[in-house]
Amino acid sequence: MKKNYDLYPILILFGVATTTPAYAEEAAEVRMLNVGSDGEATVFEPDIIRVAQGASADFIAEDFGHDAVAVAGLIPAGAEKFEGYKNADLSVTFEKEGVYVYECTSHAGAGMIGLVVVGDANANLADIERQYQASSLSDRAKSKLQTLLERVKTGA
Ligand SMILES: [Cu+2]
């Protein structure tokens, strides 16, 4: 009996699609905005993204005046501190598991920060909670970070 080899590529594609986690199928993308969809000024949207270990995220300079820069001491141990240029898109590949806190250098004082959660947040969540009060973040950024960390812990 002759086998129908034409079906094999379809079966292979189906296999890949069913074994890939849902969050890896969409490109992780953060927009840098003057005004967020909820009316808040100078925001990263969404302010928390989750990516698989080894996956990338794009920071899109949709409005002028922003950048995305990792905050020293508030990223996983041994992780590369990413640093974008103002008004430029940035693509970052995340090799180390854990939570990355980043800010916009121009609006850090206004609390323009965001989180990238790579794999399991618990890899360094306790470290960040212990260290962020002593970090270079502004008071408004610390206050926002507290809220964001709560959302990470509750999965919101
Ligand atoms: Cu900004």
From TrEMBL:
Cofactors named for this entry: Cu cation
Segments crossing the lipid bilayer: none
Residue ranges occupied by any Blue (type 1) copper domain in the UniProt entry: 34-118
Pfam families associated with the record: Copper-bind
The keyword Signal belongs to this UniProt entry's keyword annotation: yes
UniProt superkingdom: Bacteria
Keyword Signal in record: yes
Subcellular location, principal: periplasm
Residues making up the signal peptide according to the UniProt record: 1-24
Keywords annotated in UniProt: Copper, Electron transport, Metal-binding, Periplasm, Signal, Transport
Localization, UniProt: Periplasm
Protein name: Blue (type 1) copper domain-containing protein
Species of the source: Qipengyuania pacifica
Lineage of the species this protein comes from: Bacteria, Pseudomonadati, Pseudomonadota, Alphaproteobacteria, Sphingomonadales
